[in-house]
Amino acid sequence: MRIRSRWNDKNRKRSLEEVAGALAFIEWRIAGQTLLNLENEGFQTDTQLQRLDVLQELCAFLIHVTDRLVHDSMGDEERQRFIIALALKLADTYHDNRVDSEGRGKDFRQPFIDTLNSRMSEYADFRFEDGVPGYAFKRYLGEHVTDTMGPRDRKWISDQVMEIEVPEMLKTLEKGLDSLFKSGNTEKGEAEGKAQSS
Length: 198
Fold this sequence. Notes:
The protein has helices at about 15-40, 50-70, 75-100, 110-125, 135-150, 155-180, 185-195; strands at about 15, 130, 130-135, 185. With about 200 residues, the protein is mainly alpha-helical.
């Protein structure tokens, strides 16, 4: 999957919140491509709400993995700002898509945040080494995706997610994250430069 992850104006200073906004766009695209892959493999989704439920699970996974990936390169306060901004931007995107599907009148951000908070806590118990989630971590995502999809071929959904989709998601996520921080003048890049020179 091709993504645009480089800043046009490399000299303009960008806040962590701006980087998080760009990454949220990338993560929504990754989730959308993963859903499309599952549907192209013949796994069943019947409604737009069902698709959005799958996207919500995939986004929660991606946000948590992002948190793990930046853990060693950001201070606690920076990391918290970054992940909160990422989560809020994805909650906005999820809300907009629910509104497009169901109409105005409800705020769909809070249910997304509630699901995310639950998954962040649950995923925290799973192994994550060398930038890769462990078996149980991937299995847990597979089970949640399976629970949101239709009955056809359910027994194979988790295997597809774990063995095929997660490696592709991670490859694109890591490339996007790395490129966003290295191709422009960002707070994190500035902080790393100071740390190396001191």
